[in-house]
Amino acid sequence: MSYNNISEVITVNMGPQHPSTHGVLRLVVDLDGETIVNVEPDVGYLHRGTEKLAENRTYHQCIPLTDRLDYLSPLSNNLAYCLAVEKFFDVKIPERADYLRVILAELARVASHLVWIATHALDIGAMTVFLYAFREREEILDLFEIGTGQRMTSSWIRIGGIRADMPEEFFVRAKDFVERFDKNVDTYENLLTNNRIWKMRTIGIGHLSAEDVQDYGTSGPLMRGSGVDFDLRRDEPYCCYDKFQWEIPVQPEGDTYARYKVRMKELREANKIVGQALETLPAGPVMTDDPRVALPAHEDVYERMEALIRRFYIVSKGFKAPKGETYQGIEAPKGELGFYIVSEGEERPYRMKVRAPSYVNLGALNHMAKGHMLADLVAIIGTNDVVLGEIDR
Amino acid sequence: MTFEQLVQNLDAQFSGKLNCYTEYKCNFIKVKDASVYKDVLKALKNDASFLYIVDVVATHWPKKKEKFEITINLFSIQNKLRIFVKVAGEDNKFPSITDIWKGADLMEREQYDLMGIIFEGHPNLKRVLLPEFFEGHPLRKDFPLKERAWFNNADEQGLGLKFSR
Asked: N vs C: which end of chain A shows fewer Cβ within 10 Å?
């Protein structure tokens, strides 16, 4: 009996409790020896029915639900949802609120990418980066705590603006952080970019071609890492990104190393946007005075009867959105995050569909992993940057 | 290419079978004749550079004659244009578009799972977010929110357990 020509496919279960699956992702892997034949993701362990819950809540009450989607960058989710609802009313957002939204969303991007580089490097075996990246992430979470009162599920971006202006300490510490952060990215890059082990583990792994990324619908850094120059912040503008000078990093190679480079560049670019926004931050209100969506300010509520009634009405019953359907996508840290809202002219959305980037990116996992070794699957999950809160919804 | 030019091109090909409109800054193409639904999508992908599939959304309208509606969200990176292709049907059967965009696989599975749309021609149509023994499709409007049995009372894994309230 010869063992040389035996090629038997065995099925191995990976997860849901596996350190490299970043949550509760279960993979059913078909292996021929060490080579991956087929990967099938099994998700849904964290399913909370966000879309169904939203159908029974008013538009304001849906905001806390969105925090819990991509829990690494809750402010991006708030932003996408609020922009989608604002599209129904064509609300004019005050300039300062727009700037503060950009600052919060970009800081959320930095925080999310820091978790990505930390865990991705840890999975592959570079532990030092984990400690450095979490040190900086902690600073951003502190900033969120000062500015929004919460480290993670802040619900700070509201329909019509943001909840309230930030205290002075937020701006002082944010400026300090922005000045130092570029050097911190240098530290991570010193540890990884020319590291021989890092290069061996990432170059040529998980290849996606420019046609594939569009065919699979994968967005964000996965798209830009495959040479597709696409960023919703520029191609379907929202907020006030056109007022800042920044670049969109694109790498043509389409492998894990290219996506690593794209995300590292994005860290610097996001930091650049925050710096410029802090420099040029205009003064003024942070909440629109459009009575259709905005809660009247507390000062008015104490003095004016109409404001009191309106506030009571919006809080207890909600405001009615006009009949129709709309969609707003934003460039979230993981890719295109979109909210598709169908309104029947009631206080609640008739149907809300969350276009979660991680869920769609997961669809390309099998294509990326086929033919690689099982150990490379860990690198491929890391480069996919999945967040299970968003996949399962 | 703007949306108006796209509508002109499509009208030449599928005259009278499409209803194109813009609502809240979103461009919709409603396919009135379901038999040309996949031809429209193929024309959009091959001739109008809508290579990037964003999403597949199903909506349930129990009070309307056409009870289910599918919305395909497409983006053309070349033209920086987003469109929504809609098709409605009386029953929950729609042709699958996995042969046009590979990424539609997981998106359609989710809509099957939560809304119970049968995508004909889908290679792997099974539940994705909910467990396989779950009964019903929760995003349908007639799904009971209260007084629902705890999953089903069957002992799926044969553990000798009894599920009851």
From this structure: N
Instruction: Identify whether the C-beta of residue A283 lies closer than 8 Å to the C-beta of residue A95.
Output: no
A 353-382 residues inside an 8 A Cβ radius of B: 353, 355, 359-360, 362-364, 367
Q: Which of B36, B33, B45 is nearest to B89 (CA)?
A: B33
Query: Which residues of chain B neighbour A88 with C-beta distances below 8 Å?
Result: 24
Please tell me which residue of chain B has the smallest CA distance to A362: B106
Q: Residue B6, Cβ neighbours under 10 Å: how many?
A: 21
Share of residues in chain B with pLDDT > 90 (%) = 13
β-pairing, B26-31 vs B52-60, is unpaired
Quote ipTM for the complex: 0.86
Res B32: pLDDT: 84
pTM score of the predicted model? 0.90
**CA distances (Å), B16 to each of A107, B13, B27, B37, B73, in order?**
49, 9, 18, 13, 22
Helix or strand holding residue A363 (H, E): none
Residues 6+ apart with CB under 8 A from B137: B113, B114, B115, B116, B143
How many other β-carbons are positioned within 10 Å of the β-carbon of residue A11? 11
The rounded distance, in Å, linking the Cα atoms of A236 and B82 is 9
User: Which structure tokens are listed for A15?
Assistant: 């997860």
Nearest to A78 by CA among A158, A160, A161: A158
Q: Are B60 and A344 in contact (CB under 8 A)?
A: no
Asked if pLDDT for residue B154 goes beyond 80, the answer is no
Which chain A residue has its CA at the smallest distance from B56's CA? A355
